[in-house]
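Fill in residues.
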């Protein structure tokens, strides 16, 4: 863009008149091209940062902000576990609720498949995930790494494990 501005300054005082007109036309074209190249470059650089920023998903986990209050997800997990009488480090599962006569069912949407799912998941519903990615969104004790989680758990085990209701 800067070369276009420089060309416009030089062309403004050029003689004969047609040379000035050609120079100004080229300067405007160069400025327009420079602006578009700059905008495209900025867009590509920003797009490369999207995966590094968790695809825009807010983790609602404790950040390095120095605050004293716990973040929403760890607080809610601890509160619900405590309310259910679960010992520290043991997450509340659909199976735990079912054992107490509570039939909790929820709906979620899989944007990749473009369809809704009900939870707890059925026997033939399989999802794959990376535990290290889920640990960014949930407390560590909720994302077990040593094998599959108990029946009706939402999430389970090691690198690229499949989560299903059979456990």
């Amino acid at each position: 863009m800067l070369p276009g501005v420089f060309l416009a300054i030089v062309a403004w005082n050029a003689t004969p008149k047609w040379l000035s007109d050609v120079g100004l036309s080229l300067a405007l074209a160069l400025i327009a091209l420079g602006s578009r190249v700059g905008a495209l470059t900025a867009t590509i650089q920003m797009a490369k940062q999207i995966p590094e920023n968790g695809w825009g998903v807010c983790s609602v986990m404790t950040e390095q902000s120095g605050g004293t209050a716990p973040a929403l997800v760890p607080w809610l997990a601890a509160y619900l576990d405590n309310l259910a009488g679960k010992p520290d480090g043991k997450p509340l599962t659909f199976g735990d609720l079912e054992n107490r006569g509570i039939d909790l069912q929820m709906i979620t949407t899989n944007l990749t498949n473009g369809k809704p799912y009900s939870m707890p998941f059925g026997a033939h519903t399989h999802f794959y995930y990376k535990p290290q990615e889920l640990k960014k969104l949930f407390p560590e004790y909720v994302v077990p790494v040593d094998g599959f989680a108990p029946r009706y758990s939402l999430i389970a085990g090691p690198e690229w494990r499949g989560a299903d209701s059979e456990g």
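Residues 17-49 form the longest helix (33 residues).
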